[in-house]
Amino acid sequence: MPADPIALLGEHPRQEDDVLERIVTIVGRHAIPKGERHIGDDAAVLAPFVGEALVSTDVAVLGVHLDASLFPLEDLGFKAVASAVSDLAAMGARARAAVIAVCAPAGTDLEELHRGIADAAAMTNCPIVGGDLANAQDVSVAVTVLGECPGRGAVLRSGAKAGDIVLVTGPLGRSSAGLRRRRAGAALDDELVVAHRRPWPRLAEGVAARNAGVHAMMDLSDGLGLDLHRMCDASDVGFELDDVPVAKGATSEEAISGGEDYELLMVTDDPDRLRLIFLDRGLRAPLSIGTIVHDPLRRTLRGEVFERRGFQHLL
Amino acid sequence: MPADPIALLGEHPRQEDDVLERIVTIVGRHAIPKGERHIGDDAAVLAPFVGEALVSTDVAVLGVHLDASLFPLEDLGFKAVASAVSDLAAMGARARAAVIAVCAPAGTDLEELHRGIADAAAMTNCPIVGGDLANAQDVSVAVTVLGECPGRGAVLRSGAKAGDIVLVTGPLGRSSAGLRRRRAGAALDDELVVAHRRPWPRLAEGVAARNAGVHAMMDLSDGLGLDLHRMCDASDVGFELDDVPVAKGATSEEAISGGEDYELLMVTDDPDRLRLIFLDRGLRAPLSIGTIVHDPLRRTLRGEVFERRGFQHLL
């Protein structure tokens, strides 16, 4: 959609096309499967999906989702893509493709931003097949990901049942701890800072959990203290947590209300089978943290009320 | 992706969820097909696509793509969705679903914005199946649309051949003329102003053109003066235009370099068949405007050089 349909560029009629061309060389390095058409037409053309099609969108804004004084611009692109792909992992889906809409003021290093986007796309095997660019005051990256669920269908949040065991794919709080450490002066390559800058969507874990038949699943993007409540709201159940596994270097508070860990939260009536399937695929065994109960109002950690807490935007 | 993973909302922990709930009642009025899951999970779940899957993304920024002093905020939402859906029309696809990522400062009337989004989604039969919201200085709407191409595959820009006839689905310049009239004080319900505020994606025309076997197609979003060049660049051909059909009330310049008309540009070696198929489906007969030629450097209108002109962002 053009900004002003009667504006003319006069002597520089190909300016946007030139920028696009440089960006395409950064994000378009993947092999294009036969019969597909990615960047360069009105829409990208993808070979038929197998089974259900999954779609999710996520937007990241510089200065809101990333502090530009602490982190390089490429981290905004990386985190935006990783966060969106994590939503596919949360359904047990396989990533098929992503498209990106970037807003930025003139003078923004769009190549650096797109290097971060391309790195996350390569890491998650989720090719960037299209995009859009616009002028704005903010730098923002909106990422939409497409995935497929062959065989057994996508895992929703709403399937948790009383008696199910609640598990997570790993200890929590690493991302928040990394942000705290960076604020205190830690280097960009500090292990926890990297956990914050380069989140890893648990795609393999999500597929394994779907194949194991978990009843409900989601990713921990806003923190266990919000996301577990959301799952139990969707399933109309409560929970009794025994424990929250705290990652090395993180605080208990960071493990509960810190977001962006992107570990998966799963509930199942057969946790032994889930563990076996994970181990069989070379994945770390998931950690049991509690039990689902009938009463949607009962939500406890070691017998105490477990409050809803974590990040939400003020709109 | 949370803005600050360790921020806590304290007394207002459900603020974002509340806003989302109000928005969902606006954009989620469509019937949800059996087996699908739309807003409310990590990702939307769609029933299997038939044939190729198409995806395109488009972002619109208030103050860049829409002048807030001339138009209501809902127009930004409407135009963002219509513009994205038009990219599906341009491939000959059927619209299946859209997701939206909205950025806005606190205090923005998000309900008005989403009413425009919902209107365009209803008009194009393209349900909103998911979204994201973030705080930012700008108001922006990133729309990603998904479509399918059963049977004969999607129509690309790159198939134009020497000797093909160039056609458009209607006279051009209405949107630019409407913007000019609004700037001069015309009412919001003036016919041309409405053409600017409420663009109509040519979905039925796109499917008809695909079924008729057109060689190349795209939508006129940035104006014939840019888009025809882009198609001929992709096809490595030139063109000789006889005429540019000017819409009633528009100027010749608006017809050539005005964008946002979203008429389709098509080339075919069988224009009679194309016209018959359009008429048979109750669609307006397309208008012939010229011929494709071998020499990619030959690009003329009535024998004069036809310059590249239209809107591009300065990045």
Summarize the structure.
The structure is a homodimer of 315-residue chains. Chain A is α+β, with helices and mostly antiparallel strands and 315 residues long. Helices cover 31% and strands 23% of the residues of chain A.
What is this structure's SSE topology?
The structure is a homodimer of 315-residue chains.
Chain A: H1 15-27, E1 44-46, E2 52-61, H2 74-89, E3 94-104, H3 110-123, E4 128-135, E5 140-149, E6 165-168, H4 174-183, H5 191-197, H6 203-211, E7 216-219, H7 224-235, E8 238-241, H8 252-257, E9 264-268, H9 271-280, E10 287-293, E11 299-301, E12 304-305
Helix pairs in contact in A: 1-3, 2-3, 2-6, 4-5
Detailed description of the structure:
2 copies of one chain form a homodimer. Mean pLDDT of chain A is 92; it is low at 3-14. Chain A is globular and about 60 Å long. Chain A has helices spanning 15-27, 74-89, 110-123, 174-183, 191-197, 203-211, 224-235, 252-257, 271-280, and strands at residues 44-46, 52-61, 94-104, 128-135, 140-149, 165-168, 216-219, 238-241, 264-268, 287-293, 299-301, 304-305. The first copy, chain A, has 2 domains: 16-26 and 36-149, 60s Ribosomal Protein L30, Chain: A (2-Layer Sandwich), CATH 3.30.1330.10; 165-305, Phosphoribosyl-aminoimidazole Synthetase, Chain A, domain 2, CATH 3.90.650. In chain A, the strands form 2 sheets. Chain A has a 7-stranded mixed beta sheet, sandwiched between helices. Chain A is α+β, with helices and mostly antiparallel strands. Chain A has 9 helices and 12 strands. In chain A, helix 1 (15-27) runs parallel beside helix 3 (110-123), helix 2 packs parallel to helix 6 (203-211) and helix 4 crosses helix 5 (191-197). In chain A, a hairpin with a 2-residue loop joins strand 11 and strand 12 (304-305). Chain A starts with 14 loop residues before the first helix and ends in a 10-residue tail after the last strand. The longest helix of chain A has 16 residues, at 74-89. Helices cover 31% and strands 23% of the residues of chain A. Strand 1 (44-46) of chain A pairs antiparallel with strand 2 (52-61) of chain B.
